[in-house]
Amino acid sequence: MKYNFGEIIDRKHTNAMNTDGFREYIFKATSDMKFPYEDDEFIRMWVADMEFATPPEIIEAIKDRLDKRIFGYTKIFDPEYYTSFVNWTKKYYDWTFSKEHLMTSPGIIPALYELVEYICKPDEKVLIVTPSYAYFKHAADYNNVELVTSDLLNVDGKYSFDFDDLEAKASDEKVTLCIFCNPHNPTGRVWTPEELKRFGDICFSNNVIVISDEIHCDLIRNGMVHTPLAKIFPDSDQIITCMAPSKTFNLAGLMMSNIIIPNDEIREIWQARHYSFENPLSIAALQAAYQHGGEWLMELKNYLDDNFAFTKKFLEDHLPEAGFHIPEATYLAWVNIKAYLPNEENLSLFFANQAGVLLEGGNMFVANGDGYIRLNLACPRSMLNEGLERISNLLLAQKK
Ligand SMILES: Cc1ncc(COP(=O)(O)O)c(C/N=C2\CONC2=O)c1O
User: Fold this and answer.
1) Radius of gyration of the chain (CA)
2) Domains of the chain by range and CATH?
3) Which member of 52, 287, 320, 334 has the lowest number of beta carbons within 10 Å of its beta carbon?
4) What is the structure's pLDDT at 81?
5) How many A from CA of 70 to the centre of ligand 1?
6) Ligand 1 centre from 328 Cα, in Å?
7) What residues line ligand 1, using a CB cutoff of 6 Å?
8) What pTM, to 2 d.p., does this model score?
């Protein structure tokens, strides 16, 4: 191994959401909220960023840009950014897109907020499948647009579309936009080409535009293949594809994502309304990620696959009544613990207070997540083991 994923890195005094933002984000509380644990005693398995150092190749590119010593107003003028990214999508997803369609945003969430405003009229509705990353709901709420949800089917922890329900919801003429997660957070599904085709046919035959949020698409298990929704519908301009190396290379704080908008009308609104300057260090980092990140990603995927295998065995050995399948994508474990805590409403608070573990409870994923916890496994194995030990000790104590 060329890279050290077992290293414990001190994130204190870095203004990290992960270490300092959990009271506000998870508990909607102020910074004086008290727990029986000191902040640095928690095992943090909640927000989706990683405890791993960003690849040295990316850090080197940022340093090179720093050496230029002037950081004035910046936009992407150099075609090398597009070339680096499209070479990556060609190599990893066998998919390409036009340079003219590539926009950027200081994050995918800000893009969702803007796109809902640009696409939906006030009396229209946004469709999502559930459970869902909560910011998909926020994107509708903050634009005062009604949210419509379609629960994924869950058969013994295996998730799939309820296509009949999806068809029924999409056929509502007021549903004009679907925010779609591909691969899916929090269930970890990698949608098959067949599922994507049926999903897209339902949306497009009902005049529903799709934002395909593909931020997790590089973080798939070895052996899996990501299919961009737009690859299934190469002639459609009804798909906005959101991708970013921020999840892949632990760069979320650099606030830059790729938004591919093939629809001329929507892109023109975006270009007129979106503040399109970029951070020069972010451009350097993202370009380096796509040019030089391949080897690190390969080792990261191996380490994550081992963390998932470790977690699966741990749960089988210590919590045999928990429901868990190794997800096809993401570094997030979605675990059914109903058998141990059938009635606990606020799982995040329960584990924070009783086990000193910060995690996200199923109730944080809009709907269809009761009894589940989501664990971030993108951490050194020693940290993972401690978190799992604390969780299992607490849950086993409930059974006594
Ligand atoms: C599906 C999905 N889209 C967008 C984002 C955020 O994109 P950004 O605005 O950073 O470019 C996340 C991050 N997911 C997180 C972050 O913390 N917990 C999660 O589940 C995500 O899971």
Assistant:
1) 21
2) 17-55+295-395 (3.90.1150.10), 72-292 (3.40.640.10)
3) 320
4) 98
5) 31
6) 17
7) 47-48, 107-109, 133, 181, 185, 213, 215, 244, 246, 252, 257
8) 0.98
